[in-house]
Amino acid sequence: MTTRRQFLIGCSAAIAAMAGGRVGNLVFADPRAAAAANDNMLVMVFLRGGCDGLSLVSPYDNPIYVAKRGDASKDGIALSGALPIAPQNPTFDSSLGLHPNAAPLKDLYDQGHLAIVHACGLDNDTRSHFDAMDYIERGTPDNKNMSSGWLARHLQCTHPDGLLPSLAASPAAPVSLLGEPNAAAVTDPGSYSLSGPWHYTANPDTRYKDAMLKTLGTFYSGGDLVQQAGARTVETIKALAGTAAYTPTTTYPEGSFGDSLQTVAQMIKLDLGLRIATVDFGGWDHHESEGVNDTWGPFYRLTATLAQGLSAFYNDLPAYQGKLTVVVMSEFGRRLGKNLSNGTDHGHGNVMLVLGGQVNGGKVYGTWPGLQDENLDQREDLRITTDFRRVLSEVVVRQLGNGKLGSVFPGITPQIYSAANRLGIVQGSDLPIDYSSALNPLFLPIARR
């Protein structure tokens, strides 16, 4: 039996003890009522491991590419059976095609919903997964001292309203959301609950579950910041705890990637004010037996999952497509040439995918540098001609309505992004750009004893 003392301890501890897959940092959220710039949504999909962009969107008949990768008919890994696309880009000196398992993406491209940016990424010499991901997710190339992520800083600029403005569809929030107190990590909305001495909201005895939430509601009924934050957290729990099993209108791929996308789709349909969501999809580090053309190969299978997942997610949300932008990226690409293990080592330039109802799709953006030795990075890798921040900045400004790029990407310059040199990937209004930042890039540790 729960004693009065235990119950009160649980009430006071419950808000602060919410576990990673539940409300997380919402208790410490700043409940300012300032409205977001608009109600558009961004979903960031990160392909962790270094996706081979030259096999996903391939210059498949370029003789240099074929020679470096090895002809597929002779046990090489140059892409065979590519799905040709029209790049609508005169800088390409050869044909361009999607991996044959990416047919759902080709459909979206042909329909004008999907845009591709090639030869883009983090223009830094690192070939370290951890450094490259850190630079990208903090939004500060060459600087890992920034104590917040770029998505967190965007949210801090816009202060979106709503019960759940940001979501990581994973057990923990990524570095891009570091420093954002509203970010919640959710893997299963149906099990969203309160943790404390007991798992109250999952307790089958509704006497305890209902009493706990009701009591918490009376505890947090004041007007100061702590009271408002507590009340907001309770309302979020009430909205999500015990959410019915989600029935999508499309078929998602089996596995964690499909599950994560379904979680985001469900949260969007609940209309809780979601503005930013992140999804991780790992397994792209293929140093050996990459299996680009083999049905058993890891790249072959992952590409099918990626394409099916993105198509299912987008088509599951027809009523929200006009406000939705999905960006897919990886920390770096792979080498132009294959290695002795029929894999590819860490490279440089890569592709980004941009999907949405306001995307100017059916086109490949960026400048193709060519594959001749003198045009390659270090004479081995696809050279980067488009900084990843240029792509993200256009989405932030034109789709999310935030012109404070200096705060989102400290150190960004008009040469990287301005209204005059934008790529034109997404529709929307150009805003005055503030390149200054009042953010402190240094992390000051707290002394403990």
Q: What can you tell me about this protein's structure?
A:
The protein has 449 residues and is an alpha/beta fold. Helices cover 28% and strands 12% of the residues. The strands form 2 sheets. Strands 1, 5, 6, 7, 8, 9, 10, 11 and 12 form a 9-stranded mixed sheet that branches. Strands 2-4-3 form a 3-stranded antiparallel sheet. The longest helix has 18 residues. The protein is globular.
What are the defining features of this structure?
449 residues, alpha/beta, nine-stranded mixed β-sheet, three-stranded antiparallel β-sheet, 12 helices, 12% strand
Quick structural gist:
This protein is α/β, with parallel strands linked by helices and 449 residues long.
Given the structure, what is the number of helices? 12
Question: Compute the gyration radius: what is it?
Answer: 23 Å
Task: Sum up the overall morphology in one term.
Answer: globular
Q: Overall mean pLDDT score?
A: 87
Number of strands: 12
Distance between the termini: 37 Å
Describe the secondary structure blueprint for this structure.
Layout: H1 4-14, E1 41-48, H2 53-56, E2 57-58, H3 63-69, E3 83-85, E4 96-98, H4 103-110, E5 114-121, H5 129-138, H6 150-158, E6 166-168, E7 184-185, H7 206-219, H8 225-240, H9 256-269, E8 276-282, H10 298-315, E9 324-330, E10 350-356, E11 363-365, E12 386-387, H11 388-399, H12 405-408
Helix pairs in contact: 4-10, 7-8, 9-10
